[in-house]
Amino acid sequence: MPKRSAGLLLYRRAGDGVDVLLVHPGGPYWAKKDDGAWSIPKGEYEEGEDPLDVARREFAEELGSPAPEANAASLGEMRQPSGKLVSAWALEGDLDVATITSNTFEMEWPPRSGRSAEFPEVDRAQWFDLEAARRKLLRGQVAFIDRLTSLLGPR
Hints:
The protein has helices spanning 51-63, 130-136, 142-152; strands at 4-14, 17-25, 42-45, 73-79, 85-92, 104-108, 116-120, 122-129. The chain is of the alpha+beta class and 155 residues long.
C-alpha cells in the first residue's frame, strides 16, 4: 500500500493574480536546490486519520502557525514519482513568512560520521505567483497549481 500525505495550498489574491505559499525542505540534501525543490506544506498520515485534519496539523508543525480558519476546497489526490499519494486542499489566507518556525528532525550528519545533527523540516517559506510556483514546485505537485487555477476560474 502506498504512503499517503496531505497538505494545504494556501493562496492569496494579489492585484490581478494569485500567489501561493510554498515551503523549502530543510536539511543538507536540499540546501543548494531551488527550482523543482519546493513543496506545499504536507505530511504523511495513517489509515483512519482524516486527511484534512492531518493537512492542517502539518501546516502548523511546518510553519509554526495554525492554518487560517477558511473553507478548504479539495484539489484532489496525485501520485508522486515516488509512488506516494498526496491529497491537497486550497485555502485562502495570508501568512507572514518572516515569522515561520518549523519543527525539526534529526539525522546522521555528515554521512557515516556517527554524529547526529538536527535540522528544520522547513528552512523557509515564500509566496510565489502561479508561474513561478510551477517552476519551484516538485514535479509531482505542479498539477495542484493547475487545479487551483481551474477552481478559482478566470479573473
